[in-house]
Design goal:
The chain has 191 residues and is α+β, with helices and mostly antiparallel strands. Helix content is 31%, strand content 18%.
């Protein structure tokens, strides 16, 4: 695909505020990542569209399938299976992290609560990767970073997009950046 053309659209769509080096890295690696997901993990895409230039174009609406599981769950299921197959890695499902533990100035573990059982879990770690979602369903945060947003503005985003992970990181000294670049999706009243 035309990486420069797509990058131009993405950068212009962000009002020229996004980091072009990150877009370039992401787009440059996309073909290899597509192969890793499809060939390495066995994820298939429904509704593949092959173009005359030989490229495959898909959209999230075309969905993906892994062992009969569709859309985003297909990705997650494939990745979880890979994770469970590796020694030395513990996997905790349906567990919400409530605190990042510190040892001096460095992160040293987490505390979490299993959302099904209510059991509290503490895990020590040499390092932590905080991979968290956005905050588009948190009206207060959205209003803080985007002055166009109002408390009454409806959002069609998933209810779990509340910014909890951002608060966890900030609570242990991590900096936040580009917080104004959020997609609120005010597509109508979800009620």
């Amino acid at each position: 695909e035309d990486v420069e053309g797509v990058m131009g659209e993405l950068v212009a769509g962000s009002g020229f505020l996004s980091r072009q080096d990150l877009w370039e890295d992401m787009l440059g690696a996309s073909a290899e990542l597509y192969a890793d997901v499809t060939e390495g993990l066995g994820v298939e895409y429904k509704g593949k569209r092959f173009q005359s230039d030989g490229n495959v174009y898909t959209t999230m609406s075309s969905g993906c399938v892994w062992n009969g599981v569709t859309t985003g769950r297909g990705y997650v299921s494939a990745l979880v299976e890979q994770l469970r197959g590796r020694s030395g890695i513990a996997y905790y499902s349906k567990t919400m992290v409530t605190e990042i533990l510190k040892d001096g100035e460095r992160a040293a573990g987490i505390v979490g609560v299993n959302r099904v059982t209510g059991n509290v879990l503490a895990v020590k770690a040499k390092s932590i990767v905080l991979a968290t979602g956005g905050y588009s369903r948190n009206a207060e945060l959205a209003m803080e970073y985007d002055k166009r947003v109002t408390k009454e503005m409806p959002s069609s985003n998933v209810c779990s997009s509340t910014g909890d992970g951002l608060g966890l990181g900030e609570g242990v000294g991590a900096g936040l950046r580009n917080m104004e670049l959020v997609q609120i999706h005010p597509l109508g009243d979800p009620r």
